[in-house]
Amino acid sequence: MHSYGPYNPPMASEKLPQDLTTFEAMLTLMRHLRAPDGCPWDREQTHQSLKRYLLEECYEVLEAIDNADWKKLSEELGDVLLQVAFHAQIAQEAGEFQAEEMLRQANEKLVRRHPHVFGGARVADAREVERNWERLKRQERGDRSNLAALPRALPALAYAQLLQDRAAKAGFDWEEVSGVVDKVAEEVREVQQAPSLEEREKELGDLLFALVNFARWQGIHAEDALRRASDRFQRRFLKMEELAQQRGLNFAELPLQEKEALWQEAKGLDK
User: Fold this and answer.
1) pLDDT bucket at 14, cuts 50 / 70 / 90
2) C-beta separation of 46 from 90 below 8 A
3) What is the pLDDT of residue 271?
4) Residue 11: pLDDT over 60
5) Does residue 180 contact residue 217 with C-beta atoms inside 8 Å?
6) Radius of gyration of the chain measured on its C-alpha atoms
7) What value, to the nearest 5°, has the Cα angle with vertex 254 and ends 252 and 255?
8) Which end of the chain has fewer CB atoms < 10 Å from its terminal CB, N or C?
9) What is the pLDDT of residues 157-200, one digit of tens each?
């Protein structure tokens, strides 16, 4: 841990910034919120307690992008930036690091990992940029493998796809997509033939991993695809219930055949 000397908290009653368009203004506001006469809730937060909020804000950013809602995207990106400022203020109070160090490290990294822009290096295309980025990152971290530094807290599908992406960049990949398709079919059979729940769980994991690989070969992010499929299912299911209610029907008591008819109707309305 670095030491930055004693931290003297401001008072919330001190002068607030007039220009609210800068990151410095956000840091100033956060200092006021964390001040002794600031907000009780903000004062009691920690890095650990804020984890869930950072994650929620990131998913709200993804939802805004998926919906092409650019006004909402602007708002949600601001909320993510607010979480960054929150953590930076907590860190400064604890003597862990200062916001200036955080920003300097990020900007130095941008320059260092773009030698073809800020230096004399030459690249053929965006794929070579990706390879150089991963190579430079491994050198900086001292990692022996580009699979070693992946955060385990990633959602499972995203984690699987990143593992496969990096393995492929190291030359460990199928020669053509037909091999991936055959692997998916093989894993389906192994799930069906598994003799126990423990074995079925293991084989189902292998099947999901193979499906993620198929998505990667199609240029699709499996995490995004499943989230959008879940969103479609929710919309259509809610529409089914709405249609049943409009017709005075008890949805839960309808036979499966009538529910399937409502599903097809809801699907047709979901364009």
Assistant:
1) low
2) yes
3) 73
4) no
5) yes
6) 25
7) 125
8) C
9) 999 999 999 899 888 999 999 999 999 999 999 999 999 999 99
66 alpha-carbon distance from chain centroid? 13
Confidence of residue 142 (pLDDT cuts 50, 70, 90): confident
Residue 89's contacts (CB-CB under 8 Å, 6 or more residues apart) are 27, 30, 31, 34, 99
Structure tokens at 220: 């699709």
Structure tokens at 6: 């004693």
Confidence of residue 3 (pLDDT cuts 50, 70, 90): very low
Do residues 29 and 16 touch, judged by C-beta distance below 8 A? yes
Which stretch of DSSP H or E encloses residue 265? Answer: helix 256-269
| CB-based contacts of 68, cutoff 8 Å, min separation 6 | none
Helix (H, G, I), strand (E, B), or coil: what is residue 61?
Answer: helix
pLDDT of residue 1 exceeding 50: no
Which among 164, 2, 30 has a CA at the least distance from the CA of 88? 30
Q: Whose CA is closest to 191, among 209, 179, 207?
A: 207
98 has pLDDT over 90: yes
Name the pLDDT band for 7 (thresholds 50, 70, 90): low
Rounded Cα gap, residues 256 and 210, in angstroms: 32
Distance CA 195, CA 191 (A): 9
Amino acid at position 231, single letter = D
Query: Do residues 161 and 221 make contact, with C-beta atoms less than 8 angstroms apart?
Result: yes
Contacts (Cβ under 8 Å, ≥6 apart) of 53 = 83
Q: What distance in Å separates the CA atoms of residue 15 and residue 25, rounded to the nearest whole number?
A: 11
C-alpha pair distances (Å), 265 with each of 228, 240, 250, 268, 269:
20, 8, 17, 5, 6
